[in-house]
């Protein structure tokens, strides 16, 4: 009798277990199919409990589903009309600084359901040939989005190019401008490392950083060297301030975005008047990469390309000291203008 009962119990447990595993597999399969335009969207939880209050659910599906198809050029005119999709001029631009972490910032902001990124650097305002093609050409370079979403693009060359502030002002005088900065000497070395890698790829030789950054005649910092000039943030910002008030800029701490991205992203959400939707769930530290990577949902995550986070060559400490001393007064001015202080040496 007891044996019979045990066998029955085992049978019941087996059926229940199979049902549980089956349901789990079904759920995983449905979430996995999000990218293939399935109407299910269980991922809204990743944006917190209020996600659906302000951001339509379809926007979340769209982020990893339809949007992907539209980007690949697979959308029909009918689909675009049906979903009321538009190519909008950017409401915010990451104008620089090169090697500040511009790609990481753009990709991380793109985690937000109300943000749609332009994948490529468009170089509309800094490239005369592109600029001559007109604003419609620029708009057509933008990704499709729902009208309630905002488009963001990044072209780091904008920050240092003379003509850009006026050109952007002419397009939209109330646009929001994001600048991501890093400790100026580290940024200059990162800039150098990128150029060096390009030369090495072409089997070309290149100067050592020390030789470029220090003028051999005067033994002073070589202000003609582009990587040095780009790191004089205040000089460039002052040009922008002739067109835009400081309130239209938000400064992102690129060094903190590397080590602790979430609080930096939350400041940007606030600046862009977006509801807080990016959470710790969306960012996970990948020990192999040595950086935070992005998690869109349980099946889709990605790290930035290997070209982000290069190993820098070792630089003579006396050169580093000289550069830091050189940048110091410019940094002070930058803190004063922006109201954001960094612990740069
Ligand atoms: P390094 O290559 O010097 O480490 P940009 O996108 O403007 O070119 O900036 C590149 C820098 O972004 C990299 O510089 C890297 O340090 C930084 N970065 C910030 N967050 C990152 C992330 N999550 N993954 C990879 N790189 C990141």
TrEMBL record:
It catalyses: alpha-D-glucosaminyl-[heparan sulfate](n) + 3'-phosphoadenylyl sulfate = 3-sulfo-alpha-D-glucosaminyl-[heparan sulfate](n) + adenosine 3',5'-bisphosphate + H(+). Residues 90-334 form the Sulfotransferase domain. 3'-phosphoadenylyl sulfate binds at residues 99-103, 182, 190, 292, 308-312. Keywords: Disulfide bond, Glycoprotein, Golgi apparatus, Membrane, Signal-anchor, Transferase, Transmembrane, Transmembrane helix. It holds the Pfam family Sulfotransfer_1. InterPro entries: NST/OST, P-loop_NTPase, Sulfotransferase_dom. This is Sulfotransferase. It comes from Nyctibius bracteatus. The gene is Hs3st5.
């Amino acid at each position: 009798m007891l044996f019979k009962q045990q066998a029955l119990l085992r049978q019941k447990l087996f059926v229940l277990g199979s049902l549980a595993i089956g349901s789990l597999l079904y759920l995983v399969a449905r979430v996995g199919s999000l990218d293939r335009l399935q109407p299910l969207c269980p991922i809204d939880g990743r944006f917190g409990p209020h996600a659906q209050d302000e951001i339509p659910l379809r926007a979340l599906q769209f982020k990893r589903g339809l949007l992907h198809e539209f980007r690949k050029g697979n959308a029909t005119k009918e689909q675009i009309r049906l979903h009321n999709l538009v190519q909008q001029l950017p409401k915010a631009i990451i104008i620089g600084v090169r090697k500040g972490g511009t790609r990481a910032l753009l990709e991380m902001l793109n985690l937000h359901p109300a943000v749609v990124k332009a994948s490529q650097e468009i170089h509309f305002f800094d490239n005369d040939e592109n600029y001559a093609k007109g604003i419609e050409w620029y708009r057509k370079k933008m990704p499709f989005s729902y009208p309630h979403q905002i488009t963001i693009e990044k072209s780091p060359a904008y920050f240092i190019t003379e003509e850009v502030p006026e050109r952007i002002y002419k397009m939209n005088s109330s646009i929001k401008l994001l600048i991501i900065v890093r400790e100026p000497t580290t940024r200059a070395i990162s800039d150098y490392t990128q150029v060096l890698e390009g030369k090495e790829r072409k089997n070309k030789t290149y100067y050592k950083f020390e030789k470029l950054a220090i003028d051999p005649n005067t033994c002073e910092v070589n202000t003609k060297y582009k990587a040095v000039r780009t790191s004089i943030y205040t000089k460039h910002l002052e040009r922008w301030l002739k067109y835009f008030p400081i309130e239209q800029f938000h400064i992102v701490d690129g060094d903190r975005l590397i080590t602790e991205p979430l609080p930096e992203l939350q400041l940007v959400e606030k600046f862009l008047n977006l509801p807080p939707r990016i959470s710790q769930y969306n960012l996970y530290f990948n020990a192999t990469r040595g950086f935070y990577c992005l998690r869109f949902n349980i099946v889709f995550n990605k790290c930035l390309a290997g070209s982000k986070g290069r190993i820098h060559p070792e630089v003579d400490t006396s050169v580093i000291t000289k550069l830091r001393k050189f940048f110091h007064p410019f940094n002070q001015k930058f803190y004063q203008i922006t109201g954001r202080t960094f612990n740069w040496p």
